[in-house]
């Protein structure tokens, strides 16, 4: 018979995370990886009989040693260490309500503080860099039109990589005003306006690839399967490498898909869009009267976003260093 601890762990992953708090599949997998690593650590350090899960594993001192092991033995960053601790705290909060006899054990885990690390800088591309990047895919080839559609939409929408991967043809409306519907973290749905230029690229791409079914994934590999994160990264890096040969000063040493999300946020700010609308656009809005107003009145959000729609040949307005730093600080904290 399974122990109450094992039953709680199973319920935590199969019901609580996906159904009660609505965490995404990727977040659930990240939490799962934390537990896999914890049990690996417990086996290696003989904290429990091999292959068994016992409450002793969750002793505060063991958890602290586990966190140090992540950094020293597995070369994890402070950020990764804190993410693993966040997963354990989430379970401890859940277990405190379901395993009353162990409430003191889990409360001690909840009392563990996050470790402070050096501040991360936010990577983003200038307007010139994005413009050059989007000129690299050749739209007259099969792969080229797909790459152009992917990179254009990734930047235009400010979507997370997984949100782009999950987009199906039925999530797109190419009639004016064009929009895409995405499901973000916490399964929150948001409707994002896209420019007529990007809508035309998507239209040409779907016509060339004969994408017509509402449940067809928008971006697929040569096997007809949805693109993976590594697939998206490969396409971005491939085109970045070409652009970098022309103007190496525009690109940093490492480019990843999230850079386009950061870049979109920065360019919206440069164009005069208020942070409230940027936060709503990215799917990280807080509960304030103004943001609720923006959400409940799509035309207001559309007005600001369409006025700031990226124009490859356009001129970007100047913005203050203080405004720029405000967004950078917010991005580091929330994205």
Automatic annotation (TrEMBL):
Q: Where is the Core-binding (CB) domain?
A: 10-96
Which InterPro entries does the annotation name? CB, DNA_brk_join_enz, Integrase-like_cat_sf, Integrase_catalytic, Integrase_recombinase_N, Integrase_SAM-like_N, Tyrosine_recombinase_XerCD
Q: Name one GO biological process term.
A: DNA recombination
User: Which Gene Ontology molecular function entries are recorded, alphabetically?
Assistant: DNA binding
Which residue ranges does the record assign to the Tyr recombinase domain? 120-306
- Source organism superkingdom: Bacteria
Q: Which UniProt keywords apply?
A: DNA integration, DNA recombination, DNA-binding
Q: Which family does it belong to?
A: Belongs to the 'phage' integrase family.
Role summary: Site-specific tyrosine recombinase, which acts by catalyzing the cutting and rejoining of the recombining DNA molecules.
User: What is the protein's given name?
Assistant: Tyrosine recombinase XerD
Give the gene that encodes this protein.
xerD_4
